[in-house]
Write a structure and sequence with these properties.
Layout: H1 4-14, H2 27-36, H3 42-55, H4 59-64, H5 67-74, H6 80-97, H7 106-109, H8 117-127, H9 137-146, H10 154-164, H11 170-183, H12 202-213
């Protein structure tokens, strides 16, 4: 059984500045930025929203726009047609059913078009300080490589991490795992030699075993 607190402590030493890397000033801006971040880098999203939020940054603003107008703003983010449609519908629902305020419960957030478990977790933990673990591709990869959990889907990873990590560390832990995934534990060429937590890592140990057998 791995000491998850010890691993998180090591990651906190490595990444004292770990936080959400999407730029936002309101829960709604974070919601839109997170929807845009699907299969897109935070850097690209921040470039797009840096310009867009100066013109439109409330659900009422986006509700007045057509899908085509939204597409023009977000086209470089990829999957832009689907994202534009979801942003339009979500903005309309927030205006009509939530008085222009982003809902602050998981159950209400996942009812919104374009909002899955990951997006809801990002918004809850960062905009509302509600403990949550948002499992993106980095969290899924790093948590399973290290061996903190052994799961086959992001949703199973989320629940397993919630059972493994103390609740008071949920929100920050997913930032730590994301930072490590982006900087060291990369998908194609993980920099295991430079990893400060490799002594805890199943993936690293299995790699060494394989090398010794060759």
């Amino acid at each position: 059984m791995k000491d998850v607190n010890e691993i998180l402590d090591k990651l906190e030493e490595l990444y004292p500045d770990a936080k959400c890397e999407l730029d936002y000033t309101t829960p709604f801006e974070l919601l839109i930025a997170t929807i845009l971040s699907a299969q897109c880098t935070d850097i690209r999203v921040n470039i797009v929203t840096g310009k867009m939020f100066k013109k439109y940054n409330t659900p009422y603003d986006f509700n007045k726009l057509s899908v085509d107008e939204i597409i023009k703003e977000i086209k470089t983010c990829g999957l832009y047609k689907s994202k534009a449609e979801k942003i339009k519908l979500t903005s309309k629902i927030i205006c009509e059913e939530y008085d222009g305020q982003v809902p602050n419960t998981f159950e209400e957030l996942v009812k919104l078009p374009g909002v899955g478990r990951k997006t809801a977790g990002v918004v809850l933990s960062n905009a509302f300080n509600v403990p949550a673990i948002a499992v993106d591709t980095h969290v899924f990869r790093v948590a399973n490589r290290i061996g903190i959990v052994h799961t086959t889907t992001p949703e199973k990873t989320e629940f397993a991490l919630m059972n493994t990590i103390p609740k008071q560390r949920w929100s920050h832990s997913h930032h730590l795992l994301i930072f490590h995934g982006r900087r060291i534990c990369k998908a194609r060429k993980p920099e295991c030699g430079d990893c400060h937590i490799k002594s805890y890592c199943d993936y690293y140990k299995e790699g060494n075993d394989n090398l010794e057998k060759k």
